[in-house]
Amino acid sequence: MTLPLLKVQNLEAFYIPGMPIVFDASVKVDAGEFVTLLGPNGAGKSTFLKALAGLVPVGEGGICFDGQDLTGVPTHRIVAAGIGFVPQTENVFAQLSIEHNLKAGAHTLPRAVMNERLDEAYERFPALAERRNQAANALSGGQRQMLAIARALMTRPRLILLDEPTAGLAPLVVTEVLESLKTLAGSGIAVLMVEQNVKAALAVCDRACILVEGRNHSEGTPEALMADDGIARAFLGIGKTT
Ligand SMILES: Nc1ncnc2c1ncn2[C@@H]1O[C@H](COP(=O)(O)OP(=O)(O)OP(=O)(O)O)[C@@H](O)[C@H]1O
What we know:
Blueprint: E1 6-16, E2 19-29, E3 34-38, H1 45-52, E4 62-65, E5 68-69, H2 75-81, E6 83-86, H3 98-104, H4 111-124, H5 126-130, H6 141-153, E7 159-163, H7 171-186, E8 190-194, H8 198-204, E9 207-212, E10 215-220, H9 222-227, H10 229-235
Parallel strand pairs: 3-8, 3-9, 6-7, 7-8
Antiparallel strand pairs: 1-2, 1-4, 4-5, 9-10
The chain binds adenosine-5'-triphosphate.
Adenosine-5'-triphosphate binds next to helix 1.
């Protein structure tokens, strides 16, 4: 039996000591798997993701990634271990060019490696290549998200965490961004994202985990979750008509 790439067990995360937001959440992600975290507003999904990125303190529980214990380690070590993080907002430097944004994602790399990674990014997202010298604030919302994703990929992570990557985007662009994440997962880079566009997320992911009040509620393939009438109505915004 192969171990999951990411195994989070019974994690507690908090902003204020003694006042957990995430009480007991467990999630596994396999290599190349695309997993969505769903749940009501305030369930602690973003907090959970930030805790995995080392941006929120953790209490009980553990985070194991690629055989390494990453519980409570600082963000730079998490990135070095092979995890990329794309925050929901302010995820690009608006005044900097696209190329400088990408370089900022991996500024410690030697020049030759950096150029290789830039080529990879432009190959993956051709729209960025065409505009490489323009400021990021000239990009559309969807292209900005692509840039934020491309920047997180500059360190060649094995897992990328994304906090609501389609927030505020038009429906067609939502699909475009999510399809690009599906392609990413297909290329072997695991994806764990928090998403509010439930139906669009379920159309592309392999599995979804539902968090409620900082704890696991249920999980399964999109098909299995949608087939459960109680879950579909309560969490997926899909009511069966009778
Ligand atoms: N920086 C912070 N300091 C203190 N409390 C916070 C902070 N950020 C979030 N919270 C609180 O943590 C709780 C969970 O928020 P979180 O954003 O993790 O939930 P969520 O499930 O992602 O919700 P949503 O779907 O609305 O984004 C909320 O009650 C929120 O007020």
